[in-house]
Design goal:
single chain; two-stranded antiparallel ribbon; eight-stranded parallel sheet; alpha/beta
Length: about 300
């Protein structure tokens, strides 16, 4: 959005942060180039959100904080680097909106956020619950972050929801283990059958006014709308449906968010990066809406 490129938290409400790491994947690589692609696509965005009736920059001061200095190929080192990069942002009361990067990076994001806010409510838009224990025999990759986060007491699963799950599974336990951890699952089949209208209220009621981390995996969208992603799953959602779901979350106490798994090399049209930029814009609008209607909120 042509935001000022400043690594400062002075008089800042929200910060766009790039997390260009993608060696925590099981299939396609290339999400390290997602932040740049999303930023490039975002030049078409404008500040006024007509549906929420809010001018983002009338209520928020926003900067592009740059990219965390990750170490490609070294996942645990990169986690430490990302967490250290985000810590001063959270400490200053600024809301980071991260651009990924594969979904493994969310564990590092949650570590930084939980240091300030305690265990967070998670609102996840994703095809997958990412609660496996191990993959290729290793505990850290993009299919395990939320299990690790629960083990590290970073999440309040009783306030958390996973929305849009679908696709072929290895076994029934793939989803059952997420439920056993305490997450509420709202599968894609349920959304398609009953419609999306009541889902935001259901999520808001579950989260209450608890600090929320919103994670949007671009594979929530059907690959017809976002082909440039790491693990595309058919039977997903349109960009309009995603927008409506996000807009319905107005009022949540968002303290951090991300948009992940954009792989520009697998989409030469750029529509996936455009979708990612628009989802980040919707999240900014949610922050602005809360500030507009709760002017005393820090």
């Amino acid at each position: 959005m042509r935001l000022p490129a400043l690594q400062t938290t002075d008089d800042v409400d929200a910060a766009i942060v790039g997390l260009p790491f993608d060696t925590g994947v099981s299939f396609r690589v290339g999400a390290r180039f997602g932040p740049e692609a999303i930023r490039s696509a975002s030049v078409l965005l404008r500040p006024y959100h007509s549906t929420l009736d809010v001018d983002i920059f009338e209520h928020l001061s926003v900067v592009d904080y740059g990219d965390a200095p990750v170490a490609p190929g070294f996942i645990e080192d990169s986690y430490d680097r990302i967490t250290r990069y985000l810590e001063p942002i959270h400490a200053a009361g600024v809301v980071p909106i991260a651009l990924g990067g594969d979904h493994s990076i969310v564990l590092a994001e949650l570590r930084a956020a939980a240091q300030v806010h305690g265990p967070l409510a998670l609102v996840l838009f994703d095809s997958h619950p990412d609660t496996w224990d191990r993959y290729f025999g290793h505990p850290y990759f993009h299919g395990t972050p939320f299990r690790r986060a629960v083990e590290e007491d970073l999440l309040d699963t009783g306030r958390s929801a996973m929305i849009g799950l679908r696709g072929a599974l290895y076994e029934r336990a793939d989803w059952e283990q997420a439920r056993a951890l305490g997450f509420e699952l709202i599968p894609a089949s349920e959304l398609h059958q009953t419609g999306i209208a009541g889902v935001p209220e259901r999520v808001r009621q579950r989260a209450g006014d608890h600090p929320v981390f919103l994670s949007f995996d671009i594979d929530f969208l059907d690959p017809a709308y976002a082909p440039g992603t790491g693990t595309p799953e058919v039977g997903g959602f349109s960009t309009w449906q995603a927008q409506e779901l996000l807009r319905g979350l107005a009022g949540l106490n968002l303290v951090a968010a991300d948009v992940v798994e954009v792989l520009p090399a697998y989409d030469l049209t750029g529509i996936t990066a455009s979708a990612g930029a628009n989802m980040a814009w919707e999240i900014l609008a949610l922050l602005a809406w809360r500030r507009k209607h709760n002017p005393k909120v820090a």
